[in-house]
Design brief:
- By secondary structure, the chain is of the alpha/beta class.
- It has four domains: about 90 residues, Up-down Bundle (Hemocyanin, N-terminal domain); about 150 residues, Malic enzyme, N-terminal domain (Rossmann fold), CATH 3.40.50.10380; about 180 residues, NAD(P)-binding Rossmann-like Domain (Rossmann fold), CATH 3.40.50; about 80 residues, no CATH class.
- Helix content is about 45%, strand content about 10%.
- The protein is built from 24 helices and 14 strands.
- Strand 4, helix 13 and strand 5 form a beta-alpha-beta unit.
């Protein structure tokens, strides 16, 4: 029987440059390179610079009819030429971030089975138990600095997306490279497929994951334990970032592993750092200090509790006791206000249960608690109604409204609502981007409380300093650096986060701050030299 394929000869091996996304330069291969690697005739004759190529990419990008088409186009570019992909994203970060991550990545996850083109990262299913080390060794690179892993159970505010959640680790690692210069060759996205309880996916013929209900309890924990031990064995230097795990597992797994592994949970720690940064930034507008604030959280999941804990740490740094700082934080869960004496309060909520009447209506709670800051981490759209925001405005000269739930469809209110219903005196930030709002001739620029301000710089700092563990102090340092980076022009516009165009410099500052915390002896320039630059290399 004739063989359908022949063994690659030396020339065809050279031509694999065209098919390796990390090495491919496309029409930017020089004539010397085309001669050396047998590429003549395989490419159009005109040789373009990376800037010429980027112009063509942007022309095609802007021709796409909607965001999901733009996302698909950019993922195709990443699959064939990562250097050009990252040059485009880095240079056009404000345009590209909402496409490659929040909010478009949410829709991409919902449609992942339809959008899948070629493998990126590793899928480790429950059926691989007992063999996870072997699966990890299938990865093509021996050096891995950063792993982002999800089990797909709580994708943004969209819930259980099963194996479709792989879009999240892929997107997060793109931001690690674009925002902090982590080498994409050293970044590994992982999907832990433990099943799904999403009935639509289980009955969808295009769903690519395991078509079984999720494993739970001890069976689930043993699987995660094996995964963590396997990573420690195969990639001992890797920082492991947990992403979009369900509330019931996020904080529990963080507490279980953070003392023994180089790991973090961005939904808990990154969100906390981002939110505390926003509060510190708002104080540069309001003139308040940490002791003056009262925080009311609509939502008492892992993210909200994480913010409360980091806020208490920040306040403690100014001389306020942890206990007193916690008294400044109030939480609303599915049963209403979390108060002292209420039955069945979980251990993580207990420190934030204070003396107060049991209330359930948000407007009534605001009038009773008198918060200066209202924080939405609920995943419930439009719960910050006109009455709610009016109540905040009546109590405060500069009310702070953070509607942090993602994607945009899940935001607790819009920027326009927050500004108009406070007559322009409110300070607003959201998880997804909103356009500026003009009121009485003044333009208000809403802040996007994007964790991309935090996790890339923290990751770079941990990797550069070779820290053994990721600590809460690192996230507090990040929050302080972010808030201190605001210019007077930012403050005049009502911004509590700097423009995304500054994000690589901001990540460098955060990494340097962490290296100082770790007494690594690194200076800022040495860290800058470690950062990946989206530039073509000469091969001959």
């Amino acid at each position: 029987m004739n063989k359908k394929y022949t063994v690659l000869d030396e020339l065809s091996k050279k031509q694999l440059l065209l098919h390796d996304s990390l090495l491919n330069k496309g029409t930017a291969f020089s004539q010397k390179e085309r001669d050396a690697f047998g590429l003549n005739g395989l490419l159009p004759p005109r040789i373009l610079s990376i800037e010429d190529q980027k112009k063509r990419i942007l022309m095609n990008f802007y021709s796409k009819p909607n965001d999901i088409e733009k996302y698909t186009y950019l993922m195709g570019l990443q699959d064939r030429n990562e250097t050009l992909f990252y040059r485009t994203v880095i240079d056009e970060i404000e345009t590209m971030m909402p496409i490659i991550y929040t909010p478009t990545v949410g829709e991409a996850c919902q449609k992942f089975g339809y959008l899948f083109r070629r493998p990126r990262g590793l899928y480790i299913s429950y059926e691989d138990r007992g063999n996870i080390i072997s699966v990890l060794k299938n990865w093509r690179y021996e050096t891995v600095d950063i792993i982002v892993v999800t089990d797909g159970e709580r994708i943004l505010g969209l819930g259980d997306q099963g194996a479709n959640g792989m879009g999240i680790p892929i997107g997060k690692l793109s931001l690690y490279t674009a925002c902090a210069g982590i080498d994409p060759a050293h970044a590994l996205p992982i999907m832990l497929d433990v099943g799904t309880n999403n009935a639509d996916l289980l009955h969808n013929p295009n769903y690519l994951g395991v078509k079984k209900n999720r494993i739970q309890y001890d069976e689930y924990t043993r699987f995660i334990d094996e995964f963590m031990d396997a990573v420690q064995s195969v990639f001992p230097k890797a920082l492991i970032q947990f992403e979009d795990f369900a509330n019931k597992n996020a904080s529990r797994l963080l507490k279980k592993y953070q003392s023994n592994y180089r790991m973090m949970n961005d939904d808990v720690q990154g969100t906390a750092s981002m939110c505390v940064a926003g509060i510190l930034g708002s104080q540069r507008i309001s003139g308040r200090t940490l002791k003056d604030e009262t925080l009311l959280f609509f939502g008492a999941g892992a993210a909200g509790i994480g913010i409360g804990d980091l806020y208490a740490l920040a306040a403690n740094k100014t001389g306020i006791s942890i206990e007193d700082a916690r008294k400044q934080c109030w939480f609303i869960d599915s049963r209403g206000l979390v108060v002292e004496g209420r039955e069945n309060i979980s251990n993580d909520k207990e420190p934030f249960a204070h003396k107060m009447d049991q209330l359930s209506d948000l407007t009534d709670i605001i009038r009773a608690v008198k918060p200066t800051v209202l924080i939405g981490v609920s995943g419930q759209a439009q719960v910050f109604t006109k009455d709610v925001i009016h109540a905040m405005a009546e109590l405060n000269e500069t009310p702070v409204i953070f509607a942090l739930s993602n994607p945009t469809s899940k935001s607790e209110c819009s920027a326009e609502q927050a500004y108009k219903w406070t007559n322009g005196k409110g300070i607003f930030a959201s998880g997804s981007p909103f356009d500026p709002v003009e009121i009485d001739g003044k333009t208000h620029v809403p802040g996007q409380g994007n964790n991309a301000y935090v996790f890339p710089g923290v990751g770079l700092g941990v990797i550069a300093s070779k820290a053994n563990r990721v600590t809460d102090d690192m996230f507090l340092v990040a929050a302080e650096i972010i808030s201190s980076s605001l210019s007077q022009n930012d403050l005049n516009q009502g911004r509590v986060f700097p423009p995304l165009t500054q994000i690589r410099d901001l990540s460098l500052d955060i990494a340097f701050g962490i290296s100082q915390l770790e007494n690594s002896g690194l200076n800022k320039e040495s860290i800058r030299e470690m950062m990946y630059k989206a530039e073509y290399q000469d091969y001959v």
